[in-house]
Model the fold of this input.
Amino acid sequence: MFGIIFLVILIGGVSARKTQLEIEGRFLCDDDINWAVYAELRERNVIEDESLDWVNVKANNRFRLRGFVDDSTNEPYLVIRHTCRGEKDEVIVNFGKKYDDIWIEMGDVDLNDPLLQKSLRTKYETD
Done:
């Protein structure tokens, strides 16, 4: 029985394909162009989500995040943390399951928009 489980794990590991993710854009904040924004590209996993890349960037400057996913649960998402509207805020952007290399240009992301979470949560999902 152990041999069969080991073989399934080995075959699954050998056949895994790496998927490259690249996310670019610019965070806008009217209050202060020097406002720090934290962005992290993450991947959902069964036990614990994995960080693929992260960046601290000043508002109104461009950012780029890259990561590689090499398993069958490749479901990336972006976490954006900022205090642009005067209080701590976190925005989650889901990208859905990805099986091919992807590049997403998010354009200008207006952190002043109170409906940002709602408009971005599933905007890039293409399942």
Remarks:
- The longest helix spans residues 2-15.
- The first strand starts at residue 19 and ends at 28.
- Helices lie at 2-15, 116-120.
